[in-house]
Amino acid sequence: VALVESGGASVQAGGSLRLSCVYIASFKCMGWFRHAPGKEREGVAGIFPISTLTEYVDSVKGRFAISQDNAEQTIYLQMNSLKPEDTGMYYCAVDRSCVELKRWLLRGTSEYWGQGTQVTVSS
Predict the structure, then answer these.
(1) In this predicted model, what pLDDT tens digit does every residue of 66-110 receive, in sequence order?
(2) Three-state secondary structure of the chain
């Protein structure tokens, strides 16, 4: 399954970035996870394409927004008011068998992954 991320960069705190993930096929759960050095991988945001239901980890609620463009076959993660603790490698992920978005994000694992795009936020 090809998932190609882009959009990662180095920004100052308070800045914004938009990550993109181009996919070939839509899956039941689609979203973004991140992995910071010394920390466990965590789910950041997820979406059920069929219903557009979304879910976020508490630390990004109100700052990040996940969306999907079926015509462009792309998932976006708009990240605003970035903080140094948002630093990490961000991975696009999809899963056919997830049942609940929140549980999928908390589990920290997924069926397929992209190669990752680095986000670095400096204070």
Answers:
(1) 999 999 999 999 999 999 999 999 999 999 999 899 999 999 999
(2) CCEEEECCCEEECCCCEEEEEEECCCCCEEEEEEECCCCCCEEEEEEECCCCEEEECHHHCCCEEEEEECCCCEEEEEECCCCHHHCEEEEEEEECCCCCHHHHHHHCCCCEECCCEEEEEEC
